Model the fold of this input.
Amino acid sequence: MIKIAPSLLSADFSQIAAQIALVESAGADYLHLDVMDGRFVPNITWGPKVIGDLRHLSKLPFDAHLMIEEPDRYVADFRKAGADIITVHFEACVHLQRVVALVRSLGAKAGVSINPSTPVEMLQDVIGDIDLVLVMSVNPGFSGQTFLPNTLKKLRAARALIDMRNPACELEVDGGVGRKNIGAVVAAGARVIVMGSSIFGAADPAGELRALRKLAEAPAGTR
Done:
């Protein structure tokens, strides 16, 4: 089953309630929330207050992607604000297993993300403890970037690791995914697809989400 997670980073925040309603009515599975601190990545977005304010606008699971330094200091705040999945970066955690355990102790699902330059093999010692692996297909920090082709190789490696060690773990991909490559990322093993500008940059975001799902779920060789 393919899950689609529209990234609110690309939404029009002056119309955010309507934008969320559009993608929810079109069948979105998660709402992806990119949290950036201006230190781990060269951009600043929002904190727990904004996520808490958004929480009453949707019943969809909130998929919070923390692109921040020292995430262990803040995961409790994001959980309290309403995040259902909290994903931290391998590269930002000195004691990754401890952070994962903290997230789970708060009742949220724990995800770990890896940057384009981080090998999948770095997750071997924590794969059994996490609920989601997020493979970044662009360098994190900004929406609208071009998909990095080496991501497909990494998705296949992550798929193999998950299937062997923790089949319940979800495999998510984020960055530069759209009509031209959604079939390829699904074929490589991704099951949760984050898309921002591909959906919210379309004239009809709801229609585009439905079209993207149809492409993702089409039989191999027909996409």
